[in-house]
Amino acid sequence: MGVMKNEDINYATWYEMYELSKNLEGEKENIETGMIWGSLWDETLQWLLETGAQIQDGEGGTREITESDINDDSSDWGNYTDATFEYRTTSGGTSTKNEGSGTKIPTGSAEYTKANNIYDLAGNRMDWTLEAYSTKYRVLRGGYCNFNGSDYPASYRTYYSPTYSFSYGGCRSALYIK
Q: Under 8 Å CB-to-CB from 52, ≥6 apart: which residues?
């Protein structure tokens, strides 16, 4: 199937994202892909802390990520309205995402938005997960570029009907080698 881009998933429901994530392996028989569980999201955030993941320090350098960066305010490493950073555009040039702007950027296009080589856990798009809230809802994780990093940090959790579609939803897939 190739690389899925932000533009490919606008207004996708949970069901559509589930199907997309199940079919990323293409014709490969020894690979299985799928949407991640919410518990895997939490485990990834914990792994960032345990490994001393580096994020931008606001002064051109890096520093170790903290629990506060994950749970209280993810603006220092996520694409939020209260963040400014450089990113690569889809045409290959560079652009500046300015504070006060709710600009969705191409996934993986900014060093600012990564920790341990994982991009966009904080901000940009919220990710649908396999986690359920009661029998009627599915859980999204992370924040969104139209929000502040202090209101919707990387650990943020919310839920919607799986039939709901919106421009700020995405999906983080897992890859399993059989």
A: 64, 65
